[in-house]
Design goal:
The chain is of the alpha/beta class. 47% of the residues lie in helices and 14% in strands. The strands form six sheets. Strands 3-2-4-5-6 form a five-stranded parallel sheet, sandwiched between helices. A five-stranded parallel sheet has the order 9-12-15-8-16. The chain has a two-stranded antiparallel ribbon with strand order 1-7. The longest helix has 32 residues, at 135-166. The N and C termini lie far apart (68 Å).
């Protein structure tokens, strides 16, 4: 244990060894501000702590002097004496947390009490150091704050990377149908209106939703996707709005719903056409009144979220048939963005193929393929892609995995896809439903009845695939 540091304890302090994180681990040295009217304490930090802990130190003898320093530079950490002439440490803490919220503040006092520590922590102090303090206490605090700074910087970097990945400019496509989509996304991304994204499975509705969020005013807040078709109807209300402890069998603790989790951000309701009719009034109220009532609760809770919904189902027909509430449809459909299927923008296929090859190379796994032959590309552009972009990506991954050369050749493509093109089995004369049936049958054969893999390729969840199997009367092959 290190010696205690008192007003007369400088020499004992100077002989002690400090062990801390160095800048090789957590980046540049911590910039440290020590605010104390006691010259001995400032000397301790200047002559012992700064050299051994490798911190960039500045000193201030008063709160007023500290504020002057803070006007000209940014600090990572400030050690504040609680009791100083003029503006006291607690008042300075309050002011700095308002003006410099990222500054980590450690309160230091010779008059430390439990009450003072609790009050300081409530006001936002990162730690509390009573005088006389021990050397290892200072070291541990600085180690922890280095780690906190590292995590904060890493979090900011990952957030920026995530935003860059999903910005609208990252959406691939120059065909006229995609140009119209880009234009509409650019117009709605900065607004707060609800958006309904329409398009077939696998065409990129999720990417569109993320682009609108990460290019919009709520980008710093959560993006919370909800697959309404993958969650059982009896559980969906609890997932969306939360529940109270004991509200149903198995509710052993209260749980926040996804609307509250997304506070200030965006809730993406994917496959909104699958939401049960009996749950739609509660969803309508959440959108209109901006409040939700957890299952088992007696009061409503305010929520602040933007709603982006997506579907591959004809909602207008469902409204006419009484399967979807008209008022909810109009609330969701403030602005509709139609994502074109891949068969309507086949000129984008070369760009998408190049993107998927680059993506695979970035992952650094498997055999690296640098290009595609004109003959293979010709086949890709003649096929109608009922599974859309998701199916194309799967086709490229398969070709890269099974091929032998540095570029994709026709023999590397799926035999069933080649047969469909050569035999005209996936031509534009077919209806969407006919193409979807053909694609499901083909992929079930290709993957030996593996429904999980077929759902992944087509961009479905398994429950949606099973509903389609039932609707189209497609039987699974028994092993």
């Amino acid at each position: 244990m290190g010696p205690k540091i008192t007003r007369g304890g400088f020499l004992a302090f100077a002989k002690c060894e400090l062990v801390g994180y160095r800048d090789g681990v957590h980046g540049a040295p911590l910039s440290l501000l020590v605010v104390d009217d006691d010259a001995t304490i400032r000397r301790v930090f200047r002559e012992v702590v700064a050299p051994r802990e490798e911190v960039d130190l500045r000193e201030a003898a008063s709160a007023e002097e500290a504020l002057e320093l803070l006007r000209s530079r940014v600090f990572d950490v400030a050690f504040l004496d609680l009791r100083m002439p003029g503006l006291g440490g607690m008042e300075l803490l309050e002011r700095l947390k308002r003006e410099r919220p990222s500054l980590a503040i450690v309160m230091v006092t010779a008059h430390g009490t439990i009450e003072s520590a609790v009050e300081a922590m409530k006001l936002g102090a990162a730690d509390f150091l009573p005088k006389p303090f021990k050397l290892d206490q200072v070291s541990v605090i600085l180690e922890r704050l280095r780690h906190v700074r590292h995590l904060r910087h890493e979090n900011e970097r990952l957030k920026q990377e995530l935003q860059d990945r999903y910005r609208a400019k990252s959406l691939i496509g120059t065909a006229p149908a995609m140009d119209r989509c880009h234009e509409l996304i650019d117009r709605v991304r900065r607004e707060e209106c609800n958006v309904l994204i329409l398009g077939e499975s696998g065409c990129g509705k999720d990417l569109i939703a993320r682009a609108i969020h990460y290019d919009g005013p709520r980008s710093a807040r959560p993006f919370v996707p909800v697959d309404c078709g993958a969650i059982h109807a009896t559980l969906l209300e609890s997932e969306l709005f939360g529940h109270e402890k004991g509200s149903f069998t198995g509710a052993h603790a209260a749980k926040r719903g996804l609307f509250e989790t997304a506070g200030g951000g965006t809730v993406f309701l994917d496959e909104i056409g699958e939401i049960p009719l009996e749950l739609q009034p509660a969803l309508l109220r959440a959108i209109e009144e901006k409040e939700v009532r957890p299952v088992g609760a007696t009061t409503y809770r305010p929520v602040d979220v933007r709603i982006i919904a997506a579907t591959n189902r004809p909602l207008e027909e469902m409204v006419a048939e009484g399967k979807f509430r008209r008022d909810l449809y109009y609330r969701l459909n403030v602005v509709a963005v139609r994502v074109p299927p891949l068969r309507e923008r086949k000129d984008d296929i070369p760009l998408l193929v190049r993107h998927f090859l680059q993506k695979r190379a970035t992952r650094g796994t498997g055999r690296q393929v640098t290009g595609i032959s004109p003959e293979a590309l010709h086949f890709l552009q003649r096929y109608d892609w009922p599974g859309n972009v998701r199916e194309l990506e799967h086709a490229i991954d398969r070709a890269c995995t099974l091929g032998r050369d540095e570029r994709i050749e026709p023999e590397d493509l799926s035999p069933s896809m080649l047969e469909a093109v050569r035999g005209g089995g996936a031509q534009t004369g077919q209806s969407i439903e006919e193409m979807e049936i053909a694609a499901i049958r083909r992929l079930l054969d290709e993957h030996g009845g593996d429904t999980s893999r077929v759902a992944e390729v087509l961009g479905f969840d398994r429950s949606t695939l099973y509903r389609k199997l039932k609707r189209y009367k497609i039987s699974l092959r028994k092993a």
